[in-house]
Write a structure and sequence with these properties.
Blueprint: H1 6-15, H2 20-29, H3 31-34, H4 38-54, E1 56-59, H5 67-80, E2 94-98, E3 102-109, E4 115-122, E5 124-126, E6 132-135, H6 136-139, H7 150-160, H8 178-197, H9 212-225, H10 227-233, H11 235-245, H12 249-255, H13 260-264
Parallel strand pairs: 1-2, 2-6
Antiparallel strand pairs: 3-4, 5-6
Helix pairs in contact: 2-5, 4-5, 5-7, 7-9, 9-10, 10-11
The structure holds zinc ion.
Zinc ion (ZN) binds at residues 153, 157, 214, 217.
Length: 266
């Protein structure tokens, strides 16, 4: 059964209002939203309305969330599913936003079987079938040289988790080749990790070398934030991401007449 029927969507659209001035100011913030065509922008706007209707975006740690903050987060989250469907964010409802980095507590067992309690500062976190947690301060860090974008990062993990734990292997569309995805991402990940291990200069955030799940999330950030770098460094990964997200950000920037180099190489 479809979670989000056409009838329900039309009813939500009719009854919901989005502050036009806030919407326009958020769209003006990001190179990836500025480059959207008129049709894409309209689709994104609808997606943001549905997202705000279906998800609860709440402040924590004393953060009071304003409408423009909710629209900002929803807009970035919806960029990932612009060519897909809001149904890709099924199975959970909450986005929790802290003012700044928050502390995650977890346990792990070392090789000797000793359990360690760890408290680690986090900028974002995604739970399987649970909430997305974000640091507001980090959502506002734009223009980082590695294309840092914590919202895109965490929501990419959400898409990855549609078929279980995050492992860099989201559910692929009909017509996409699973073997090809694994080959392309597997070899790119090994290659990237090797470059990071040897302290080579990399255009993509070195955090991608952490594990295949992070490689998918970080290359997704870069795919939207600085697509030309991904296309230049890992063209196979770019093509797989373009097929998965059903978007071609390099072509879009060129069509929008935006200086692709500027948007891409920082
Ligand atoms: Zn991550």
């Amino acid at each position: 059964m479809q979670w989000f029927t056409k009838w329900r969507r039309e009813r939500i659209l009719k009854r919901s209002a989005l502050d036009e001035a806030l919407w326009r100011s958020v769209v003006a913030c990001y190179p990836f939203t500025r480059a959207l065509s008129v049709q894409e922008r309209a689709r994104l706007r609808e997606c943001v309305i549905f997202f705000l209707h279906e998800k609860s975006i709440v402040g924590a740690g004393g953060l009071e969330l304003r409408d423009e903050m909710r629209i900002d987060i929803a807009t970035q989250a919806c960029m990932l599913i612009l060519g897909l469907d809001l149904d890709y964010y099924r199975g959970w409802v909450e986005v929790i936003v802290y003012p700044d980095e928050f502390v995650a507590e977890y346990e792990y067992m070392d090789e000797d079987g000793i359990v360690h309690q760890v408290e680690e500062p986090m900028t974002g976190e995604s739970w399987l079938a649970g909430p997305v947690i974000l640091s507001w301060a980090d959502t506002q860090m734009r223009g980082d040289e590695h294309g840092y974008n914590v919202v895109i990062h965490e929501f990419a993990h959400k898409l990855d988790m549609l078929n279980g734990d995050a492992n860099g292997y989201p559910p692929l569309h009909a017509g996409m080749d699973r073997g090809e995805w694994s080959r392309v991402f597997g070899s790119a990940y090994e290659h990237f990790r090797n470059r990071v291990d040897h302290d080579e200069a990399v255009g993509i955030d070195p955090y991608a070398a952490e594990n295949p799940a992070e490689f998918f999330a970080v290359t997704s950030e870069a795919f939207f934030e600085m697509p030309k770098v991904v296309l230049a460094e890992y063209p196979g990964v770019y093509r797989q991401l373009a097929a998965f997200y059903r978007q071609d950000p390099v072509a879009r920037l060129a069509a929008a007449g935006q200086p692709v180099e500027l948007a891409a190489i920082r």
